[in-house]
Amino acid sequence: MDRDSLGLVRSGDYLTVFIPATESALVFRVKSRVNEGREVFNYGPLPITAGTSLPTYEGTSTTVPADGVLPARSYVRDGISFTSITGMENVYTKSDIWYLGEDDRDRLFHVKMYVYPPIIRTDVQIPSKVTQGRFQRERVITGVDSELGFNRGFIEVIHLPMVDYGYRFGNDTNLNLKTFVKFVYGEYLIEIPRNADLIFDIVTRKAPSYWITLPVAYIDTKIADSLVRVYGFPRDSLGFKVYRADERSNAVKEYTYILKQLKV
Length: 264
What we know:
This protein is mostly beta strands. It has 2 domains: 14-33 and 190-259, no CATH class; 40-187, no CATH class. Helices cover 12% and strands 33% of the residues. It has 3 helices and 18 strands. The chain has helices spanning 196-203, 221-231, 248-259; strands at residues 14-19, 24-33, 40-44, 53-55, 61-63, 69-70, 74-75, 107-116, 121-125, 133-135, 140-142, 151-152, 154-159, 166-171, 177-178, 180-191, 210-213, 240-241. Strands 1, 2, 3, 8, 13, 16, 17 and 18 form an 8-stranded mixed beta sheet that branches. A hairpin with a 4-residue loop joins strand 1 and strand 2. It is globular, with a radius of gyration of 19 Å.
C-alpha cells in the first residue's frame, strides 16, 4: 500500500486494523484526512509531574525530580494518557487528547509517537491498566517492566472510539532522562466498505490496504463495547474474521451478515 512521506494512509485508500485476540480485522476506507498538511504535533515532555512516585527495576521506588523527567531505572506501571495543552481546551476530555466518543464513529486517530531520547522503553495498554503483552500463550506478561515485549522510542497505534489507552515508559539506564514527545498523526474520516468480496480480498491481502496490528491479546469489555456500540459489530463477530484464501464463499456469507448490522 502506497503511503505518504509520513507513513500515513492517503485519502481514498484502505486501512486494516488486525486484532490478534479475535483473529479478525477492521477494514476502513479513509475518505479524507482532516489535518492534511498539519500532521506533526510537538507535544513536549512526557506528562509525568515532579514528586510522582515510580517503581524501579530493582523492586524499590523513586521520585520524579522534575516535570517530564524519567528517573534512572524507573518505569511507569499504569499507563498514562496525554493531557490537553494550551489551545486544546475543547477536546472531548482534557485527560486524553486522543479519546473519541461513541458518536465519533466516522473518524479514527492514526498515531505515530516518537519519544526522545529514543532509548526509552515504550508500550501501550488497551484499555488503560490492561497490559496486553503476552509470551508463550499467556504464560508470561510482557512490557516495559519486563525484559521483552516493548518498543524503544516509538509506537504506532490506531485509537478506537470509547477506549482509553494507557502509554507506559521505562528508563533502564542509570541516568535521569529529560523527555520529549513528538506525534505524527492522521485524523481520518472513515467508512467501512459495504462490499463483502472487497473486504475478503483486503483481509486475504489480494487488494491493497495499510495494515496495523493492534497490540490486543485479550478482549476487554471496553474494546468489545467499542466495536459493538460504535460500529455495530455483533458480539459474536467483533470484526471480519481472517479466512483462508480458499474460503471465500463462507467468508462472504458471514461478512454480508455483518455488514447489515453496521452503523458506519
